[in-house]
Design a protein that fits this description.
6-stranded antiparallel sheet; globular; alpha+beta; 713 residues; 6-stranded parallel sheet
């Protein structure tokens, strides 16, 4: 099928479930499920607001979140939850798991077997939620409320929930957004506890469709009957003893719901369901799926307990997951969400499948990296494996109390530089310690090093190798490990003499002009202000963790450092960064991707883009297609901040940036996740350029990337 430039997305596979998923009988498989690919990482990317370099109409802003109903039960989602979900087993083609066809695993018998295994093996470690995913429902009652598939749940859902509760566990259930086709019934279905309200009163006259599969009618919340319908379902769930609700197919997100696609904007549904959950006479966790759009993060935070940041982790193949599929994609899709997680609302990375060995589809090294990444990012730890068949290694991973404690501390990690395949992720803890994960995402062994200065650490420290259960004393300078392909290390580093104020971490330049530099860093423990230095001279003071340094000289190399300060005391300086300011005479210079001087290969080509500079961009880049921007001229050899304007309606995409056919960097383009390929964003990274003319090639041999508008240097 022909796809316009910029609209190609990761290959998706549609899997038909054996039973109705409310009104949707299909679920979108993970990215690249049909053709596993080797995903590549990106550098530390960041989104910045479009500036005057963009031309055309102003970008469409996301709707502002409405005043939300406060969370009534503060204990719900105070920490990332631990549990199990049925979907990973429902989705796999591993022999014997779904003997009666796709999705046939789901049944009362199998759910209760998993619950009993959890109570026996995992409950002592904090695992408590048993979540029944899609496939439990078949149709609706006389009021359009969901009813159980009695062939699979002959006693109904309340009885199943009661049995789960008897084990001291919690009961989760699944639904999808919108009004099911099957319960509309020509608009004549009455709404429970809402005299005079019928299904015809809560939909639009044209019966427009919504959700990730377009398998439901969009609800019109201008009608007061619509809130009554949400209330009726939530109250029914509460009467069954439900402790957890997953709502699937929510947009904007999942490659739908761009600003010109209001039918897939479900923010009003989410707000209505949140209101219903808070008004129900039972504490219930309410989470959203799948692959939510980040530009609506404030709405998700105000109206849910968490959200999926990505597509399904499962491979929809003869195992549960594969490394080179959507699993490794989490390293690239998560960074833009890090600051949105916290008590009451968490970034959901999807199920953990590290317990069943061969059926998982990944080796032991990859299983450890999988568990490490989820744990240190404060993601919910819900298992997708068969709990009745956990192997010893899987049980060891899932029940490591130190790893679980890191997860339950609720301090999400963030990446240092991601411009190579070796990554360092870290989380600064309130007690002055730092949790550090080293990851080798290459397909061959490599050494990964976490520099103490970049991590905000000073002096000597105790380094706890968490998985090895070994502590190394009086370590200074760095932690380093030679890791196998896809391998990892997890450390807890505690300074011998915690400094107050502590050293600022992760100093980064986000913008540079002829006379200014914009800097950000992670906060110092105990600091009340910050001193900013350029080439050894203090040039600014800031009360926040960012500053715009003024009065710099054009085309000059500066080394920047930051110190935390409090009542006359200062910390050690941060790790330095060095880069050139822009040259005189109008710098930074913008280079259009579609310029006649650019070189194209493969199917890469120019397409229209109303909000892009000059109304054009370059798309269809990836595999054998690339674009090279030529004539990038700088006055001296050194490091320059390169900014790239792009459009990306996917979750994220990556490219290689190759300079003069020599040095290569990986760039991560955070996506909007809602199929909006017309709103430009900007990312940046420091790049070494040579004096004179340079050629910057943008490519990815393993997948399509974002569309490129321009770069500036």
């Amino acid at each position: 099928m022909s796809v316009p430039a910029g609209r190609k997305r990761r290959t998706a596979v549609v899997v038909t479930a054996a039973v109705a998923l409310v009104s949707a009988a299909v679920a979108i498989a993970p990215a690249d499920a049909s053709t596993p690919q080797s995903f590549q990482p990106g550098p530390k990317p960041a989104l910045v607001e479009p500036d005057s370099a963009f031309q055309g109409n102003a970008p469409i802003e996301a709707p502002k979140a409405k005043a939300a109903v406060p969370a009534k039960y503060s204990q719900v989602a105070a920490k990332p939850y631990l549990g199990w979900s049925s979907w990973s087993l429902q989705s796999t083609n591993y022999p014997g798991v779904n003997p009666d066809g796709p999705g046939s695993f789901i049944s009362e018998k199998n759910i209760l077997a998993q619950a009993n295994a959890m109570a026996t093996k995992l409950k002592p470690y904090g695992y408590e939620y048993v979540n029944i995913d899609a496939g439990w429902q078949l149709g609706g009652d006389e009021y359009g409320r969901p009813t159980a598939n009695l062939a699979r749940f002959p006693r109904g859902m309340k009885a199943v929930g009661d049995d789960i509760h008897k084990l001291g566990l919690k009961f989760g259930i699944y639904t999808v957004v919108g009004l099911g086709f099957d319960v509309y019934r020509d608009g004549n279905t009455p709404i429970y506890n809402a005299p005079g309200c019928f299904t015809r009163d809560i939909v639009y006259p044209d019966l427009r469709t919504t959700n990730g599969w377009d398998q439901a009618y969009k609800i019109n919340y201008a009608s007061p009957c619509a809130q009554k319908y949400a209330d009726s379902i939530v109250n029914l769930f509460a009467s069954w003893g439900v402790d957890f609700i997953k709502m699937d197919g929510v947009g904007p997100g999942s490659w739908k719901g761009a600003p010109d696609d209001p039918n897939h904007n479900n923010t009003e549904d989410v707000e209505a369901w949140w209101r219903a959950v808070q008004n129900a006479a039972r504490p219930m966790m309410y989470t959203l799926s799948w692959s939510l759009s980040h530009r609506y993060a404030e709405t998700w935070k105000a109206n849910s307990h968490g959200w999926r940041i990505d597509t399904d982790v499962e491979c929809y193949c003869d195992t549960i997951v594969r490394w080179n599929g959507s699993l490794v994609g989490r390293w690239w899709d998560l960074p833009q969400w890090v600051d949105d997680a916290g008590p009451g609302h968490w970034n959901n990375l999807d199920a953990i499948n590290v317990g069943n060995g061969e059926m998982d589809g990944i080796n032991e090294v990859e299983r450890q990296s999988y568990m490490t990444f989820w744990a240190m990012n404060a993601a919910p730890l819900f298992i997708g494996d068969d709990l009745t068949k956990l192997d010893p290694y899987g049980l060891k991973l899932l029940t490591n109390r130190e790893v679980i404690a890191i997860n339950q501390a609720g301090v999400p990690a963030r990446p240092l530089d991601q411009d190579q395949l070796q990554q360092v992720w870290y989380a600064k803890n309130p007690d002055g310690s730092v949790t550090v994960g080293l990851f080798n995402l290459a397909d061959t062994p490599a050494t990964v090093t976490g520099d103490f200065a970049k991590l905000g650490l000073s002096g000597q420290a105790s380094v706890r190798d968490v998985w090895a259960a070994q502590t190394h004393r009086n370590v200074s300078g760095q932690v380093s490990a030679t890791l196998p392909a896809h391998g990892s290390k997890l450390y807890k580093i505690t300074p011998n003499l915690p400094a107050s104020p502590s050293r600022p971490a992760d100093l980064t330049a986000t913008d540079v002009s002829r006379t200014t530099a914009s800097l950000t860093w992670q906060p110092s423990t105990g600091a009340t202000s910050y001193q900013v230095f350029a080439n050894g001279k203090q040039v600014a003071t800031s009360s926040s963790t960012s500053v715009v340094v003024q009065g710099l000289s054009p085309q000059t190399s500066y080394t920047f450092e930051v110190k935390g300060a409090r009542t006359g005391r200062t910390s050690e300086a941060s790790a330095p960064i060095t880069l050139f300011t822009a040259k005189s005479g109008g710098g930074p210079v913008r280079y259009e991707a579609e310029a006649p001087t650019s070189t194209f290969t493969g199917n890469a080509g120019v397409s229209d883009c109303t909000l892009c500079s000059g109304g054009k961009k370059v798309g269809n880049i990836g595999y054998d297609a690339s674009v090279t921007l030529n004539g990038i001229t700088v006055p001296a050899t050194g490091t320059y901040l390169v900014k790239i304007a792009y459009t990306d309606g996917d979750t994220s995409r990556q490219s290689m940036l190759t300079v003069n056919d020599a040095d290569s960097y990986w760039v991560n383009y955070h996506g909007l996740g809602d199929n909006d390929w017309g709103t430009p964003q900007v990312t940046y990274l420091p790049v070494k350029l040579s004096a004179g003319s340079n050629a910057l090639k943008i490519s990815n041999p393993n997948g399509y990337i974002a569309d490129i508008d321009w770069i500036t240097v």
